Amino acid sequence: MLLPSTERALLHRVAVEQAEYRVPSLIAAVVRDGELVWSGARGRVDGSQPTIDTQYRIGSITKSMVATMVLRLRDEGKLDLADPLTKHVPGAPLGDRTVAQLLSHTAGLRAESPGDWWERTEGGDWADLADSMNGDPGSKALLHRAGRRFHYSNVGFAALGELVAQLRGRSWFEALRAEVLVPLGMGRTTVSPAAPHATGWAVHPWADVVLPEPAHDHGAMGAAGQLWSTVSDLARWAAFLGGDTGDVLAADTLAEMREPAIVTDGDRWDAGYGLGLQLQRRDGRRLAGHTGAMPGFIAEVWADPKDRTGVLFLSNTTYGGIRGKLTGAMLDILAEHEPNLPEEWLPAPEVDPKLLALTGTWYWGTASIALHLSADGLLSLKALAHGGRESRFRPDSDGSWTGLDGYYAGERMEVVRGPDGVAQRLELVSYVFTRAPYEPVEPIPGGVDPAGWQGRG
After folding, report:
1. CA gap 202, 46 in Å, rounded
2. Hey, how many other C-beta atoms are within 10 angstroms of the C-beta on 419?
3. pLDDT, tens digit (0-9, with 9 covering 90-100), for 393-415
């Protein structure tokens, strides 16, 4: 749990937000080390303060859950992210736009479906939606060249929902519930509201009165923002985004989802988008999560995997300055009042002497690098002087190593050993790392002058 002073500061921030922006009800929460450690609420739902079990619509947070299903299908070999959608959804009016482009909003699709405002109307099935985009030029699906820009598309996630349905043989939500929500213990995340739940309200801009908002089944467009959830369930989702994936998704796949595919705020790169996840860089943090808005509701969930911290809120108002401010303020309060302690360092329980012998200084030409062996069995390559490339490497069964991140992500590093088993050099891409600068006995590209190192130029 958090300290009383931290809890008071968080509750004060929630109270200010709810009063200043006239939010009918608001509940926020903090997750640390995979556990819900604090929640605070203001306002009323049916005459009482909301609880961690009160449902709200979560809008586009739905997209991250649908994306998780798509990545599960990829990991099973049922699709490739480079596949055009039409390979799996025949007749989709999306040309050659790929699954990866749909996940990252880089496919160049229209933002909204043709016709009436889908968020406030009953929705039809995928066939109806696809047919509506095959009509007049004003209804066409494709607006931009693929990959040209970030263009947020609710239609794109409707298409991904159909992709899941086609490959699983049941609706996207039925697949999501069975494969993601139930295994994570998110039983209160549903496609339709289940009591206790909040009513969505629009607050009059110039009077303290409210208007109820509709809550329809949006059919094919539901995969873009249909779901309802609770603080309790979204706390588990924040833990998932932070790395506690259970058996639902491989850790490497989640890390892939959190990698920036596109920058969404121009030259600043404070915000980006991965594969179904919004990304933020804020005060040295790298956050992954999603915002959500539907008529009558605003929600956010963010996770900082490095700090093992998540923040979220649910509210039932159509619009307000609340969006984009509250979760950031909560992170600031946590950093000031109660920064998370780093994980305790412990030595490795055992070590392979051959791996230990790989550590220390190596050279690429005259550039010095170091290899560090961590307790989890990974090797980290780091430049020692003048900056340079850094990567972590995972061991493979054949004795080689695969880069996990940075410049060498996906690249293969070979350890070349002499007859005595001692590591002589590392071969990585076209680079050769040796124990001495320009080791004359090793195959240095370009050759080494036979005279060797000299006292003057």
Report:
1. 16
2. 6
3. 999 999 999 999 888 999 999 99
